[in-house]
Amino acid sequence: MTNKLKYFLFSVFFLFLSFSLFLYHFHGIKALSFFDLLFFTLMLFLSNNITALDHSINQISMSIVLPFLFPIMAEFEPFQAAVIALIGTCNLKKREKGFIWYKFLFNRMMIFITAGAASLCFRIVLGHTNTPVLAFLAATIIYFILNNGLVYLVIKSSGGSQNISFSYFTQLIKIVFISFFLGTVLYHGFLKFGKPVFLSALLFVYIIKDFLYAKIKMLNSITQLTESFLKIIDLKDHYTEGHCERVARYTETLCTAMGIKRTKAEQIVNIARIHDIGKINVSDEILKSSSSLTAEEYNEIKKHSLFGYQLLKNIDLMNNGLDILLHHHEHYDGKGYPEGKKGTDIPFGSRILAVCDAFDVMTYGRTYKPAMSKEEIIQELERCSSRQFDPIIAGKMIELINKGVFDDIFRAGRYKAGIS
């Protein structure tokens, strides 16, 4: 455990103690039967364990518990609701690394804080508006912000991966709104039909969970496949693997600057990560040549985009957007390969990838071709605009370079091929 993580856990522990004393002192508790305590705790426990979703790449686990917190927030004081949540959200799933005491402690404290804060928010908003729906919406937002905020901070403090994908974050938002809708329905069903409605709700949420799990699993599989292909590329040519990762970063920056829809941008970025996968079918002598390529060698290299397309087209999880990979060496004037496409006939993602691919080659160079300076790269992009590159995309890249977006690359002076 790092010192940074220790300090963070101590801070959460202090917050947990302070908040629990605050809730108990200022809001107190009300009498409740042992049966009520057992029933609501059991329902929350079941909802937590049968709806667990795991995102294996980011090592994050979450469950759909918000709907079952709604009636609890309405029935009990915030302190009691937080205690029920703390006990009821214990997870039975056995972890590969075994029991980790500080992770368990953090999860218990986190759920107490988030459930208690959500319940307190519910009480405050309900008192001012007398509208349960608005109160539940406010509580849902508070729960979501605190829960995911604390998870992010503990990952950051532990030195773990912070690259939580936008698609995964989008799934979390969808789950929150689904939970809000289900929670509102469950609350009104509880008011009208009582406790039996919980059992039918558990079954319904379990069915919903299966659809969401399928999407999360697909994201896991795509990421794992991409990483596997990157390892294959690295074994073939170390430079190419570093090149693909850098091109993906530039592609993401350029897509954001151009205001491309996030789902489309993510598709282009994913292709950028493996755009040179076809080079595994190119001989080592050509890939690692320290001199300029002959015409025959260059013709062999030109086949790599087609090789990559043929390799991935029959993999269902990877074949979305493969036209971007196939045509990323087409030129705007029609003089590129493999099909000589011209202008807007070239897929938009391919045109973006072409600029980012060339930018990395210019900044890092090759063993037989030295890297170019910032000014030389701008001149080259201007010269090749409307010839090799889409003029709008090239213009946006020049704009980003002039704004200093990529200055860290130039300042680092890492222009040698193979340094990543």
Low-confidence stretches: 53-62, 414-420
Helix-strand makeup class? mainly alpha
The percentage of residues in β strands lies in under 5%
* Relative helix content: 55-70%
- How confident is the prediction overall: mean pLDDT? 79
**Estimated radius of gyration:** 27 Å
Number of strands: 2
What's the SSE pattern? HHEEHHHHHHHHHHHHHHHH
- Largest sheet strand order: 1-2
Described by strand count, sense and barrel closure, the largest sheet is:
2 strands, antiparallel
The domain count comes to 2
Distance between the termini: 29 Å
Shape: elongated
Question: With helices defined by DSSP (H or I, 4 residues minimum), what is the helix count?
Answer: 18
Description:
It is built from 18 helices and 2 strands. With 420 residues, the chain is an all-alpha fold. The protein has 2 domains: 218 residues, no CATH class; 176 residues, Orthogonal Bundle (Hypothetical protein af1432).
